[in-house]
Amino acid sequence: MRVPSDIEIAQSCAMRPITEIAAAAGVDPQYLELYGSCKAKVDPRLLRESRRGDGKLILVTAINPTPAGEGKTTTTVGLADALRRLGKDALVALREPSLGPVFGVKGGAAGGGYAQVVPMEDINLHFTGDFHAIGAANNLLAAMLDNHIQ
Fold this sequence. Notes:
Layout: H1 6-12, H2 18-24, E1 32-34, E2 40-42, H3 45-49, H4 72-85, H5 99-102, E3 111-112, E4 115-116, H6 120-124, H7 130-149
Antiparallel strand pairs: 1-2, 3-4
């Protein structure tokens, strides 16, 4: 039996609208900054204005990836899948997972196999544009400094 590649698995997924996923998590649309129909950022005001009690937080902050490339994203998605399977309310928040590929580190940024985040192509291509903004600001500062020195 042939094992499908990560991109084949990602592209075979039927993505639900992010507004539907947010609603299931109890996030009101006013707290969403949409990036198309399948991606969004959540406004931090939600933390201050929410009436829900505090939940438990598990941070996956550092890990040595396996030789196959499984790292923080794959571990995070697998952990959330396991918690959901146990009947727990679990939600994953990834903060710019695409930095590995940007810095030339092996692998993509969306996890791997059936433990990955979609849309894989968008995530691996700078997600919401934040990293591009940082690079542009860096280039502007470097040009200004160079101009000042000259």
